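Bug #2210: token dump truncated for Protein arginine methyltransferase NDUFAF7?
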Amino acid sequence: VRLSSSSSSSSTAQHFERKWSTPLAKTLADAIATTGPISVAAYMRQCLTSPSGGYYTTPHTGHDPFGAAGDFITSPEISQIFGELIGLWVVAEWMAQGRRDRVQVIEIGPGRGTLMDDVLRTCRAFRPFAQAVDAVYLVERSAHLRDAQHKLLCGDAPLEECDIGHASVSKYGQRVLWSEEMSFVPSDPSTSPFILAHELFDALPIHIFQSVSTPPSPSKLTISTSPTPPPQPKPQTEWRELLVTPTPPPSPFAKPSGGSTPDFTLTLSPLPTPHSAYLPSTSPRYRALLPTPGSTIEISPESLALAFSIATRIGGSPSTPRDPAGAALILDYGPADTIPTNSLRGIRAHARVSPFETPGEVDLSADVDFGALAEAAINASEGVEVHGPVEQAYFLSAMGGKERAEQLVRGLGGTEAVQRIEGAWRRLVDRGPNGMGKIYKALAIVPYVGGKVRRPVGFGGDV
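Reproduced locally. Full output below:
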């Protein structure tokens, strides 16, 4: 009996055809097979915001990433005190700048809207400020998160399309507008923009680079017949990019290992990439590490561009001059004064997992480089100054968080509510090795008006 070789090889290929953990994983693998390895930034962008399976842009049936039952819980979800103190900070900064009569309140990446809800509720108690708010702007790319924000902030008020995206009216009376990009939010020199970014920058894509030794080219080697060897050029160092590639498929004859293997892995590029040739040269902080082989750095161009945009909205620029006004408050996690390294992580069910498993179904994040944000803001505008970062525990305590917690429990007796409020406050300011009060930091961008530096409240200044 003669067997068809074509049918045999076909059935074998089908039998051993690789299975990908998610449809997005297969899409990424097909793209890599066509165009080659991709940057970590491209991988993160697809995993988080792809319209075809992104973590934040694709609803997952029965799964809400936020809250105790989801993949992570944020400070506003832990306690109302957090959002109230942010609202107080905005009002205090507005008062310190002379109570201007036109205000924008902007949040980038507002999650479920919990923080903005607490901020607006708090600001309502300060009627002059509430009356000065022209509009509230929420920068959100996810349609289903926008719907959740609208439901919380606006209730039954209709959500209508407008020139920048969508619009409604909050239950506190302010006009609320949604746009997918910060660039769509009007930048009016006659208004004071107060910009909030809580756990936003950690989700913005990063590139990862490593310094490697490269041997001198043959043309630079010296050949001599002298008994004394001529001096040879020292090895040079250059930045190479770590790229995302599929993990090697398991052998069809291998015994199953106990756990699953991530779909992708990191591979060092054999040659410089356009990103490795440019991005690490943009700051002396990166250039100082180049001579040390093995140095690894993470750079987020989107973060730097956003910090640049925020700074020019507050302080103006040569092409868009304005009187400095407004402020930005950034709250996120990362080292206070060093460049992040090896910080890319996946998060699922409140646990750290590989960022390369089940793409699109795992949240991805990386430590924020606060030094880079400060540098970008200062370089963007002569009309701003930067304060911080300071630990979240210090910031919230300086804003009166402990006193607010005591006020909330007063009169409640020994009830479960008291334990919940006190426990939530302790969690926000926990300064243990992995405590939120230590890991999370606050950074402020405020107007620079010349003369003596004015420290904002929460950063060493008074109300």
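Output looks complete on our side. The longest strand covers residues 236-246. Marking as cannot-reproduce; reopen if the truncation happens again.
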